[in-house]
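Feature request disguised as a bug: please show the residue count (241) next to DUF2459 domain-containing protein in the output. Example input:
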Amino acid sequence: MRRLPRIVRWAALLVLTLALALASAAWLTARPGDPGLYPPAPGAETVTVRLVAQAWHSGLLLPRADLARAAAEAADGALVEVVERFRAYPALEIGWGDAGFYRAVPTLDALDWRLALRALFTPGGRPAVLHVVGVAASPEAAFPGAEIVTLRLSRAGFDRLAAALGRAVTARDGHPVILGPGLYGPSLFYAAEGRFGLHNVCNHWSAGLLHDAGLPMTPLLDTLPRGLVLDLAWRGALQSP
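Example output, currently without the count:
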């Protein structure tokens, strides 16, 4: 039996080493969830939310009525104002991202790699925005082609998520800062807290809000939308609608 050429053996060893290094890094940076919040206790009140994962971006689809309740109970005036502006819609899809790249790239076809690289590698990160969309159709109809993960959160977990979302809204004199029309449907861009960069992309933000709701997260795996979906599946967080 012929032995594989030395260069092939070295290449295989390199691939294996990189795979082990990445797996180790993912494990070492993983953050545990809060079992007091997630999964919900049997028979407890729950709130259904959805992760919407596109080719390069993910956001959260949240029930507007529950978000309005949580914002009002927390006396978060800026978030109440955002939610009230979309009161005609039963759900809101909310995403976070780089202010320049997010607003300039509505679809994957419009992807500008120069903008993408600038957004990812600017030292200190770049300003961020929130994109809020009013959604009336079913998730599958509203986001054809997207991977949609359905999650049932405890009420306390959802309230933690809403509080984290409220902290992401930049407010001036108690009011959210509107930056202009959004990318599709009834939507608006809002100024947001946080800095966008390679170590804090939109998918980390989505995962972070779910982490606030009690779910575990793996930042390295969550860098890409598909990785975030796999992370939820790997941790057993996927639930039937």
